[in-house]
Q: What sequence folds into this?
């Protein structure tokens, strides 16, 4: 019985440590961004790749990035897949503006979208992917 309690504590401790090791500031760079231009009858287009910083906190389940409009002024909801092995862990966040960001810390891969929440969209709709490195 005592062994089981120790084993459970070790597993919980390991899972918490793996999340805290991923928490931090990352420098991210798009590989490719494509989408649609509402002002031009939703014509398919490519966009200039961007570089941005993101503070990613797996414990608090939040992403802060001014460039992606993940800022304190707007609500966001994030999910962390807590039951997968560390090599498969990720965070998925969506903001009230319609932006989304998914990040896989083991590989540094991310995917993001700008699907702005507006009845008559005038801003571009974009989907992109790239990689992030921890500062």
A:
């Amino acid at each position: 019985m005592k062994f089981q309690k120790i084993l459970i504590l070790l597993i919980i401790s390991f899972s918490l440590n793996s999340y805290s090791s991923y928490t931090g500031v990352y420098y991210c760079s798009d590989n490719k961004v494509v989408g649609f231009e509402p002002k031009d009858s939703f014509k398919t287009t490519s966009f200039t790749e961007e570089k941005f910083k993101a503070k990613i906190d797996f414990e608090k389940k939040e992403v802060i990035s001014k460039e992606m409009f993940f800022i304190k002024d707007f609500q966001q909801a994030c999910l962390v897949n807590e039951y997968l092995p560390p090599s498969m862990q990720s965070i998925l966040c969506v903001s009230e503006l319609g932006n989304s960001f998914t990040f896989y810390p083991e590989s540094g891969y991310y995917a993001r979208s700008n699907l702005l929440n507006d009845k008559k969209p005038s801003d571009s709709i974009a989907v992109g992917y790239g990689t992030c490195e921890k500062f």
